[in-house]
From TrEMBL:
Alphabetical list of SUPFAM superfamilies matching this protein: Bacterial luciferase-like (SSF51679)
Molecular function per GO: oxidoreductase activity, acting on paired donors, with incorporation or reduction of molecular oxygen
InterPro entries: F420-G6PD/mer, F420_G6P_DH-rel, Luciferase-like_dom, Luciferase-like_sf
EC numbers: 1.-.-.-
Catalytic EC class: oxidoreductase
Full protein name: TIGR03557 family F420-dependent LLM class oxidoreductase
Keywords in alphabetical order: Oxidoreductase
Keyword Oxidoreductase attributed: yes
High-level lineage: Bacteria, Pseudomonadati, Pseudomonadota, Alphaproteobacteria, Acetobacterales
Signal peptide: none
Domain Luciferase-like: 10-290
Length: 322
């Protein structure tokens, strides 16, 4: 069992992200996973630094901890060849500590390129082509490509790490989980759904299975619920809606009448370790073996201390390794 710490680029600026990653490494986390956004979900979150230079800084600011995108969309804002080049460079800078997490993306981030926002079927087709390109470039087996959506013309990565970065694919449903098995080397999800694991395995997937688990540690349950509602109420809309809304104003409108209780049903809140451990257990029981903990809100120091002192020793199959 591996435990990760989520670097929420929507809630923290670049310098704070680097600082938080250092503290996570000291506390014994196995990996840090950074979101790759052009916009926060809500104005209250207030940040959206580019993930890639932050990852470069992390490669030099840390020594042991794994680095990961969770996740990057390689189909609209970025051409997949650029993502392959970035992944290879990070593999070198980090000493083979980098994992490339990829997904089909959200309109919130990808529409800024001005190419429109396709339907879900085309998004999956684009991701499938991007996975072919990225995998081929990272292994040095592909230089030219002509697909329906992407082209390569004598492309080559001149600097590649000794170990190809592992590619994991985000899945919100069985179809995407099967794609992760066919063209990726691992799976990442945000829901404790055994059907995603089953679809991944039935399609031949045998690699790591990552899950993001949102929680809000605070001195009281009431404080945690207020914080989770303030920063994380966007998550109540669910992926079918989250993928389609274009800006923070839309998410504000969609969540205007969401009560704190509704957010607390998705985010474990308060000082009780048992409550947070129960949330983690649901994902372990579903079949995930890499748990990425997302602390909602500004109190990252308090959470990291809570993790090191209380949570890590109590999670089955895992002891802190700081």
């Amino acid at each position: 069992m591996k435990l990760g710490y989520k670097l929420m680029s929507e809630e923290h600026g670049p310098s704070d992200l680097v600082r938080n990653a250092r503290k996570a490494e000291e506390a014994g986390f196995d990996l840090v996973a950074i979101s790759d956004h052009a916009s926060p979900w809500l104005e209250e979150q207030g940040h959206a630094p580019l993930a890639w230079p932050v990852l470069g800084a992390l490669a030099h600011a840390t020594h042991r901890i794994g680095l990961m995108t969770a996740v990057t969309c390689p189909t609209m804002r970025y051409h997949p060849a650029i993502i392959a080049q970035g992944a290879a460079t990070l593999g070198l800078l980090s000493g083979n500590r980098f994992t490339l997490g990829l997904g089909a993306g959200e309109r919130l981030n990808e529409h800024i390129a001005g190419a429109g926002w396709p339907g879900v079927r085309e998004r999956h087709e684009r991701l499938s082509e991007a996975l072919d390109i990225i995998g081929g470039l990272l292994t040095g087996t592909l230089a030219n490509y002509r697909g329906e959506y992407f082209r390569l013309d004598h492309a080559r990565l001149f600097d590649r790490p000794s170990e190809k970065p592992t590619v994991v694919v985000a899945a919100g449903g069985p179809e995407a989980a099967r794609l992760a098995a066919r063209k990726g080397e691992g799976l990442i999800a945000t829901e404790s759904r055994p059907d995603l694991i089953e679809a991944f395995r039935s399609a031949g997937g045998s690699g790591p299975r990552y899950a993001e688990v949102a929680l809000c540690y605070a001195a009281t349950e009431e404080d945690a619920r207020k914080t989770a509602h303030h920063y994380f109420r966007w998550s109540v809309t669910g992926w079918p809606v989250m993928a389609e809304l274009p800006n923070t104003e839309s998410f504000a409108a969609a969540t205007r009448h969401v009560p704190p209780e509704a957010v607390a049903e998705l985010v474990s809140c308060g000082p009780s370790p048992e409550r947070h451990l129960a949330a983690v257990d649901r994902y372990i029981e579903a079949g995930f073996d890499h748990i990425i903990l997302t602390q909602v809100g500004p109190d990252q120091d308090g959470f990291i201390e809570f993790f090191e002192r209380t949570l890590a020793p109590a999670i089955p199959g895992r002891q802190a390794t700081g």
